[in-house]
Amino acid sequence: MIVASASRRESDVVDNDDFLALDDQLDDAECSVRDTVRAYATEHFLPRVDDWYQSGELPRQIAKELGGLGVLGMQLDGYGCANASPAAYGVACRELEAVDSGLRSFLSVQSCLAMYAIHRWGDEDQRREWLPGMASGDALGCFGLTEPESGSDPSSMRTVARRDGGDWVIDGTKAWMSNGTIADVAIIWAGTERGPRGFLMPTSAPGYTATEIRDKLSLRASVSTNLRLENVRVPASAMLPLARGLKAPLSCLNEARFGIVWGLAGAARTCYTAALRYAGRRRQFGRPIAGFQLTQRKLATMVVELTYAGLTALRLAQLKRDGTLTPEQISLGKLANARSAIEVARAARTILGANGITLAHPVARHLANLDAVLTVEGTEEVHQLIIGRAVTGISAFR
């Protein structure tokens, strides 16, 4: 579980990876989450992440480890969840993605796409049945919205659910589901006569067939799956009763996007610190390359982008805490921080030279991941159009 920890070092004038001392804005509980998750991730996940990346897997046991840390569904209240602040959840995402985007993605899918869907849109029986086990990591969830022909436009989904007596029968396909082959329950969104609805579907149900995507070159320390549903029968009680229309699944995506905003700052921090250390010890022309003006220009630009990302994440957490955060503001944060993180990673790779493309350093792995995170939970273009609609009052989607 999360334990207390010391505050930021008072003797530091400038913290190399927190130039404006943004973490001084965190309260004691949020600092405790930061330090506990960072320490555990560094000791237990970092030594294994290269093997996971090379083998293209993330072990199911990660759920129990994260459950032991108290971070699964930590932003929710009750049912074994911690009711933590937005910033506390954010720093947990940041410290996990500082190791690898796959870890943060695992947390996002479990906490925001699966658990939040049940907590916000389910009934009391569904919450009691699933949430305690999901908070501990004993039960794992996944989320099925994206389809082979329906990505940025979920209204065009082809998966359908039809009534058959007292049951629902669901047919269709889903694509790019994280954890679909290792989950216990899937949150499946399907069209009905009354519009899109969400269903809790045990992955052991006959007709549920998940196939892992193995040929990925990004987010390799993550389980991605395609799903086929053939006459999958679930009882009427499997429907999320409060989820009517696309507002429900989109709300889950916004929960996940908030965590991504923080996670991107963690990936950028790792790339920057790796480049800074390397520049200090790599010598050319008789001195460390950190002493050359062009290298310092790169490092300074990275500090600025890293600080932008941290400021954006912190401000969104404040707005979320106050209950005023809008989907458009989340889109701005996701778009801005993805761009900043990628710029930092690319600059870091150039400082490391050819060494930067090996797994001896974390930069190329993060750079490959970030290229996918740029489009995960909404592409760059979609977020631009969301912001554009907000400032003009005109929708460019249709």
Automatic annotation (TrEMBL):
InterPro entries: Acyl-CoA_DH_CS, Acyl-CoA_Oxase/DH_mid-dom, Acyl-CoA_Oxase/DH_mid-dom_sf, AcylCo_DH-like_C, AcylCo_DH/oxidase_C, AcylCoA_DH/ox_N, AcylCoA_DH/ox_N_sf, AcylCoA_DH/oxidase_NM_dom_sf. Keywords: FAD, Flavoprotein, Oxidoreductase, Transit peptide. Residues 244-391 form the Acyl-CoA dehydrogenase/oxidase C-terminal domain. It comes from the Bacteria. Pathway: Amino-acid metabolism; tryptophan metabolism; Amino-acid metabolism; lysine degradation. It catalyses: glutaryl-CoA + oxidized [electron-transfer flavoprotein] + 2 H(+) = (2E)-butenoyl-CoA + reduced [electron-transfer flavoprotein] + CO2. SUPFAM superfamilies: Acyl-CoA dehydrogenase C-terminal domain-like (SSF47203), Acyl-CoA dehydrogenase NM domain-like (SSF56645). The keyword Nucleotide-binding does not apply. Its cofactor is FAD. Its EC number is 1.3.8.6. Residues 142-232 form the Acyl-CoA oxidase/dehydrogenase middle domain. It is an enzyme of class 1 (oxidoreductase). Residues 30-138 form the Acyl-CoA dehydrogenase/oxidase N-terminal domain. PANTHER family: GLUTARYL-COA DEHYDROGENASE, MITOCHONDRIAL. Belongs to the acyl-CoA dehydrogenase family. This is glutaryl-CoA dehydrogenase (ETF). It comes from Pilimelia columellifera subsp. columellifera.
